[in-house]
Amino acid sequence: MVQAASSGYYTTPTDTDEDKRVGEQPCEAGSACVGGMKTACTEGSTYQPSTSQSSCEVCSTCAAGKVMTSECTTTSDTVCGDCLAGTASSGGSLTECEICTGNGKFSDSDGASFCKTSRAGTKPSTDRTTVELCPKNHYSIGANDTCTPCPPGSHSHPGSSACERCMTGKYFNESANNCELCPSNTYTISGASDIDGCLGCPPGGHSKPGSGFCDQCLTGTYFHEAFNDCMACPSGKFSATGGSSIEGCEPCAPGFYSNDPDGAGYCSPCSAGNYTNSDQTGCPACPSGKFSSIASTVCAECESGKYNDIEGSDVCKSCPDYMTSQPGSTSCHCKDTFLSTINPFNNEPTCTCGPGTTLENGACVICVNGFYKSTTSLGPCTSCNKVSVKNAIQSTRPLATSPLSCMCSRGDYRTLEPPPQDESNNNATFIGQCLPCPEGTNCDKAGITMGSLPLLEGYWRSGTNTANVVQCYTESACAQSDEAQQNTTARNATFLTDSQCAEGHIGPICNVCKPKWVKSPTGECFECKPTSTSTSAGLSIVLLVGLPLLLFFLVKRKRAKNKQEQERASTLSVSEQFNEIRNAKKGRIKSLRTKVKILTSFYQVVTQMEGVLGVRFPPVFENFARSVSRFANLSFIHVARVDCMMDVNFYTSLLTMTTAPIAAGLLVVFISFTYTKFARLNAQRRGDVVRDTVAVLLTLSYLVFASVSTIIFETFNCKTFSDNPTLFLVADQSVSCETTTHKLWQIYAGCMMLFYPFGTPFVYSLLLWRDREVLKVEGERDKDERAKNSAFLWDQYSGEFWWFDIFDCARRLFQTSLLIFFFKGKASQIVFAMMIGAATFSAFLHWKPFEKESDNVLAVASQCSIVLTLFYALLTKVGVDEDDDYDKKTFGVLLIIINLIGIFIVVFAGIVKPVKKILRTLGKKHVHNAPLKGLTLRHRPLPAFKSYFYELVDSTEATAGWERIDAKYFGKHGKGEAWLEENNAAVEWRCSTGNGPIDQCRATFSVNASMEDVLDGITTTGKFHKVLGENADGTDDMHIIANEFPFPLFARDLVVRRLIERGEERCGIITRTQPRTQPESDARNVRVHPMRVRMHIHIGGYQLERVSRSVTKVIYVIGGETGGIFALDWIARKGGTAHLKKIVEFAKGLEVTVDQGGDGGGGGAVQDEEEGGIEMFDMTENPLRVDKEKEEEIRKTVGFKGLSPAT
């Protein structure tokens, strides 16, 4: 059944036809539902805020005074709001209020429907929200935005609609709200709106209160209100138009005055030279010293440099030239820098410049630095450098008034000796010159003169009139105390020289000790103590007597020890003999004696360089050298402090040094004679004593040779010190060389030359020449009884240098004493000494005369130290050390180190020996009990030696203890095994004594060559091998050079004795080092000298066995004694295997490739490396002899110069 929808509802669903709808829903807000249909309200016209409504409401409009703030929607009505004050609205649909903008319009409340109009006497406020009253003297008729100002002469009250006007002579008083009279001396013609409208009378006018005009007084008068009349202006004032009151009379302007009794209409100016008084009624005159111009109120003082000596002056006079004045002066005086004098021409004061000043820019200024002036004038200053003192660029401050005021700058000093004149530079006006301060002075400020020359500590000069400053022997001796520096101007040479020295020092360069003072090794003087006298005497006796006795004891001990060694020698093997000989030569006394001899001669040379060459070394080195000199030169006078017991000078030292060795020698001879006389000795023992005595005398003569020779020659070494003309002895400045006494001592010294410098070498020469033939043979000279007497002279040298001690004496003379006579005091003297040093250095380096290599090294190092020390002396002599600013302390330490090299070598050798013994003791050894041991003396003859060689070649492990060498010694990582297999070599080694380091090695291998070819290849000599000659026993001697060096270095070489045996099936090559006891043949023109080699060869050689026509078995044997640092087992093993490897590779290099085809007599081929092809040759010829160049090429390929045990 179809039902009708309820009011305010609509049927659903809305997306179907109306007849098919089955439900209803309430109508939403903003719509109306009637008869089941929903209709939306019209936007802006109708609205419905509720649901389930059947109709829409009509939208409202705003009332007057309001505006619409929110428009009507389908769900809400229109919202209206009030207009604010200052605006208005007629209502309806307006959305904005209208602002009140018309003339006089305003709105004074909210919600106004229209704008109001302002009434008369008011105006709208700025924001149009209210009205304001017009201010006083303004008016408004209404309906206007502004108030109009009252016209001139009228006034109004606040809020007035019109303005009012006062009568003539009156003004409107607002506070009284009434028109009142204008004050006196004012007027208004038409009335005034306020007091300001009452105008003042013009100058000279006056009026009564309420006046409409003003009355006027005459010029120079004013209106006196009390008298009601015009009065004359008082003096000092004026009135140009007449004044209305006393104030109308104006004061005169500054510099003007008035004094008219009838009144002044103007003021008159004061004339020049006058000034107005305080009340401006008159013009008094200016006093003297002052002036004024017209219309001045005060008189001005004359300015500085002007004056006025009269009253009433309008100007000041200027002071004359170079004068000035204080402000307000009535006279002038000289300027501060000028001197006042009387002009002799007009007898008036005048100004000029005094000494030391000159006119410059209108003032007397001090002469600039480097100039002076000695006159009173306006002239210029004189240049020191160009006129008076050459090179003086400064002068004394503040005034330089004479040439003596010229000063030298810092680093220079002034001398009053004019410089020399020449054609290019006329120095006639100079009275002196500036010269650089010499070394040893302290010119750290300007103005130093020769007289005030300050000296540094360690320097000395002979007086204040000399600048020749010399360095003192000892720095601390020349103390240069403050007292000495303060007295440098005393010009008392005696006082000056004494005052320069430290306490206890006197004489030139302060190198003389006062009585009862003794000189230390470094040159300082110390006061003798009472307890030192007895000690010095005892020490002198000990030195004089003990030294010869000590030498005598050492010689006898050496002789006894030599006999013991000879008794043992015949029972030792060769290896043991080498050890014994080495140990004997390195015994404590034997080893040190030669080194002490070398070092003593070295330090005798070095310590005498300072005195002989006259050169100064760094102080630290000088102290070192002087300390060493006392002992190296056996100066027992100073060592024993004899100078504390008696007065000692050079003559005492000369006498003692020349006679003490003779006395000591006589003492030794006396003791020897007494001993042989009363001890009942047999002939042999007496001979031993005589030989010991000779040895002691030779040793003593050697020790004193250089020092005594030097002191003898020093007798002739004189020089002057500073500018003292007296010649003093260089060795002792207390001795003058110009006395008769000194001449006599020079004669004595000349006689002593026959004993020492020339006599000693002459005696040495006689002794050595007498035994020269024996001394050349080292094995024989030790046995010769006569030669033993001079053993001290030759036993440290090898046989061929039996004469070397004579050369050494000459060397020491030329490096010390004789240098005094060559280029004395010049750099050439040092150059000459260096040439001698270089020559002796080359001689030691080339000859190596000593038996022991360590002694040769020490001697070469000593000569090198001498040359280096002389080189520094040369640098000092020519001034390079000063020019390059060397650090003397550093170089002094360096020189000490250079001169201690010999000591270092000896100490190092002493340390190395025990270390080497420990290493040998702890090192690996080869031990066996096989019967075949090493060589002994019984194997010295050639047949026994040859038999031993073949026995060694054929020996086995059981008979000789051979041990197979591990392949690792020939190469690691399998290379050693491969090398042994490739060469089919068997290598062995052993210790020949049965317990010790390896000293014999053996290699067995085969060579693919005929035995004859191998033999020829081995025996062929090259450029480094020379056959010296054949011996009667069938052997020959071969000279082998291992390394060849240029002069002065000597080649490393040795001589071996070789035996070659040829057989059909076996050949032998046997070698051994040539015994040094064997005399040389005439063909042997080489020096036999022990080379620094790794091994001394005892035995070595080859045995060649024919295996077939083209195959040869080779057995190589080498046996030797390692020495030095190589005397260790592990070094012997390493060196032995390396040597065997070279031997095998060299022999394999002799192989040729044999053609196996044909009848066996065909040919072979050798690869030609240069041509790259194959060269064929006939095997019937020896290929090594056919092509010598190819032979040398093969040798170079295997890297071996020649096959020899020593190489």
Describe the structure.
The structure is a single chain. 31% of the residues lie in helices and 20% in strands. Residues 1-23 are annotated as: Disordered. Keywords: Disulfide bond, Membrane, Transmembrane, Transmembrane helix. InterPro entries: Growth_fac_rcpt_cys_sf, START-like_dom_sf, TNFR/NGFR_Cys_rich_reg. Residues 40-80 form the TNFR-Cys domain.
Which overall shape is indicated by the principal axes computed on the Cα atoms? flat
Quantity of strands, as a count = 70
Q: Beta-strand percentage?
A: 15-25%
Q: Mean pLDDT, as a whole number?
A: 79
The structure class reads alpha+beta
Largest sheet: 9 strands, antiparallel
Tally of DSSP helical segments: 30
Q: In angstroms, what separates the terminal alpha carbons?
A: 148 Å
How are strands sequenced across the largest beta sheet? Answer: 58-59-61-67-66-65-64-63-62
Q: What ranges have pLDDT less than 50 throughout 5 or more consecutive residues?
A: 489-495, 567-587, 1076-1094, 1153-1207
Helical content (DSSP H or I, runs of 4+): 25-40%
Using the CA coordinates, give the radius of gyration.
68 Å
